[in-house]
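Hi, here's the filled form for the chain we discussed.

Project: internal
Contact: R.S.
Residues: 160
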Amino acid sequence: MNENTPRLAGYLDKQQPGLYQALTGYAEQVTAEADRTGIPRITLELVNYRASQINGCAFCLDLHHRRAIGYGETEQRLALVSVHRETDLFDKTEQVAIELAEQITRMSSARPTAELFARARQVYTEEQISVLCMACIGINAFNRLSILSEHPVRKARSLP
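And the returned structure, exactly as it came back:
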């Protein structure tokens, strides 16, 4: 096995391109629904970033870090996403979205709480909550795909 050969499941996206395209289509539809319902792209990227941190997916962390920065997110806030409760840098809507990502990602050890959904209803519509939940489901699927495929993180190109 050479250094470019994945050690786990192989590149699942290459082995099952139709299924990967379906997953990509799902993510595109989640983004479209977030846009339609008024969820900022930065909030969606905070959800993706936090779930990827919890799951330990280097590939997705790198991708969503770059996307968040592209939407205007700051390095400081991204550095503090995992301790978002300890700072005033995130507003109430972002706090709730990040907590949804945390609880949905950790569902195998504890179910998301009714208290969190009650707080979510104070800042989001039911439709927005469902989009955020679907975003969490999607990023968790992508994290698992990238971890099993051992997608490499490539060194970022220097910007001019």
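Let me know if anything looks off before we file it.
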